[in-house]
Amino acid sequence: MTRDVKTEKEDQDVLIACRIMYENNIGCIIIVSQSDNNNTKPVGIITERDIVRMLGSLKPLRLLQTRLRDIMSKPLVNVSINSSVRDAIQTMQQKNIRRLVVSDGDEMVGIITDKDIFRTLMNNQDLIPILLDDKLLVEHKTVYDQFSQYWFSDILRRS
């Protein structure tokens, strides 16, 4: 997971979100609300895909002035800091999303993305059988072995 989560307040406009994503080379920011005691609480997420979708449906200048609260995806989907990578993958798959906020109780401590998971698997191929369902692995062991040999021996060598 990434601990340095970029956030912005929900009353800011989309241009601010675009600038943060550009300057930090990231694909999303977490939107926070600010309470009376100046604490912030994650309430939504804005992704590059959200902005492109809105850009296609609104006039560009109007989009850039739109408040983040009006277009953010909500509610956030969280995963506990104590959850496994397998839990995160299953949640992403079930919800058809690519990013999860990682929480420790009520506190946001990071974000995990599909790219984070893929990078981890590429760097440690021994994790793949652990993450796969045992039944699935047994039923498709030959295919998995061929894929694994091709992917990690051939493709990664070229990279």
What does this structure look like?
It is a single chain. By secondary structure, this protein is an alpha/beta fold. It has 2 domains: 7-120, CBS-domain; 124-158. Helix content is 50%, strand content 21%. It contains 9 helices and 6 strands, in the order βαββαααβαββαααα. It has helices at residues 14-24, 48-57, 60-64, 68-71, 85-95, 114-123, 127-131, 134-139, 141-158; strands at residues 7-9, 28-34, 40-47, 78-80, 99-104, 107-113. α1 (14-24) links the parallel β1 (7-9) and β2. The two termini are 24 Å apart. The model has no long low-confidence stretch (mean pLDDT 80).
SSE map:
Layout: E1 7-9, H1 14-24, E2 28-34, E3 40-47, H2 48-57, H3 60-64, H4 68-71, E4 78-80, H5 85-95, E5 99-104, E6 107-113, H6 114-123, H7 127-131, H8 134-139, H9 141-158
Parallel strand pairs: 1-2, 4-5
Antiparallel strand pairs: 2-3, 5-6
What is this entry, summarized?
50% of the residues lie in helices and 21% in strands. With 159 residues, it is of the alpha/beta class.
Share of β-strand residues? 15-25%
Helical region count?
Answer: 9
**Element order: H for helix, E for strand:** EHEEHHHEHEEHHHH
Approximate helicity band: 40-55%
What CATH first level of the largest domain would be assigned? Alpha Beta
Question: Overall 3D geometry?
Answer: globular
Structural class: alpha/beta
User: What's the gyration radius in Å?
Assistant: 19 Å
Largest beta sheet: what is the strand line-up? 1-2-3
Oligomer: single chain
N-to-C span: 24 Å
CATH third-level topology of the largest domain: CBS-domain
Corresponding CATH architecture of the largest domain:
Roll
Kindly report the name of the CATH homologous superfamily of the largest domain.
CBS-domain
Determine the mean pLDDT: 80
- What characterizes the major β-sheet? 3 strands, mixed
The tally of strands reads 6
Uncertain ranges: none
